[in-house]
Design a protein that fits this description.
3 domains; mainly alpha; Multidrug efflux transporter AcrB transmembrane fold; rod-shaped
């Protein structure tokens, strides 16, 4: 009924299988299938005694039987001369049941798929929860096993990759800062902007209800770089302010040091606003993007914007303070001034 390949026809460079099967009139419904004729080995026409002939329906002219009627097919062999053809219903139970569209196998084992989609939540979290629920409520028969597969595997692989990338990014940023300033302490001051950027990024994820994903992790990496960049601008102006006054060795008192640090921090305001403003203008449309791929674009933009906004304000307030205390310690050590006399100490003016 399903057809059987009997040969292959070649048409130029193409090959097509030739299959033979019953005409549609013989397989349209269950009753048609019951009346199909099959060879009955070991049963003669004489033994049949014509009993089955009344159950056969005639084959329409031009059908797959070549215009031969069912009764005629039954009498295709002379009585008592050999095998005869009988209706399929006489030798088999014919029923209409639902079955798989195809039978899939892998490595010699039958395989079946249960597919589903996840919305409005983390895929990995859903899979982990589903695995626990299935393990508790479903008992697999012997010889059967369950395997979870799908898009979440890519996220698991990406998560493992990020576990290497994140520390590498921190280390690379620190190395670049040290090679720029040749000062471990100043490089450390810049790195302190990274945790503050993380806080801002997490706040924006909560504010816009984003799940932690690979796109979010990539956004955090960009956030680290931009937060460090804003800190570098501040540090450049603070160091230049010290250098304009001849360095620490020419600063006469801690009051002068505080004034110089404040002067450098204030001068940094304009480039800071320009840098932050242009970045926000560029990233804000990505956060509210609703077109194709908005799930990835918005998730990347949220931690960058949050980290930039929060880190910038923290950088403006705390880096000058930290810079002052580092330079204060170095100034006291350079001039060998005791801590208890620090605020009163005033060095003589240089010639």
């Amino acid at each position: 009924m399903g057809g059987k390949p009997i040969t292959m026809t070649v048409e130029g460079r193409q090959r097509f299988p030739v299959r033979i099967r019953y005409a549609r009139a013989f397989r349209e419904d269950e009753q048609d299938a019951k009346n199909l004729l099959v060879n009955a080995a070991g049963m003669s026409a004489g033994a049949m005694g014509g009993a089955g002939a009344t159950n056969l329906r005639s084959v329409p002219d031009g059908g797959a039987m070549g215009g031969m009627g069912g009764a005629a097919a039954l009498a295709g062999t002379a009585p008592g001369s050999g095998p005869v053809q009988v209706p399929l219903s006489m030798v088999a139970d014919v029923q209409t049941v639902e079955g798989p569209a195809m039978i899939k196998s892998e490595n010699g084992m039958l395989r079946s798929y249960v597919q589903l989609n996840v919305r409005d939540r983390d895929i990995i979290g859903f899979v982990e929860e589903a695995q626990r629920a299935v393990a508790q409520k479903v008992k697999m028969p012997q010889g059967m096993y369950l395997e979870w597969s799908g898009q979440f595997e890519n996220q698991i692989h990406a998560r493992k990759t990020m576990q290497v990338v994140f520390p590498a990014v921190f280390l690379l940023i620190f190395v670049i800062l040290y090679l720029t300033y040749h000062d471990f302490v100043d490089a450390g001051l810049m790195m302190m902007a990274v945790p503050e950027a993380i806080v801002g990024g997490i706040f924006f994820l909560w504010l816009f209800d984003f799940r932690f994903s690979v796109a979010v992790q990539v956004g955090f990496i960009a956030c680290f770089g931009m937060a460090t960049e804003t800190g570098i601008i501040m540090l450049v102006y603070l160091r230049e302010a010290i250098e304009r006054h001849g360095g620490l060795e020419n600063i006469r008192s801690l009051q002068d040091l505080r004034r110089i640090v404040l002067e450098g921090a204030v001068h940094r305001l304009r480039p800071k606003l320009l840098t932050e403003g242009t970045t926000i203008i560029a990233l804000a449309p990505m956060l509210w993007h609703t077109g194709v791929g908005h799930e990835v674009i918005s998730a990347m933009a949220a931690p960058v914007l949050g980290g930039l906004l929060i880190a910038d304000e923290v950088v403006d307030m705390f880096i000058p303070i930290r810079f002052y205390w580092v330079r204060r310690y170095r100034w006291l050590k350079m001039h060998k001034i005791d801590e208890k006399d620090a605020e009163k100490a005033v060095l003589p003016a240089a010639d």
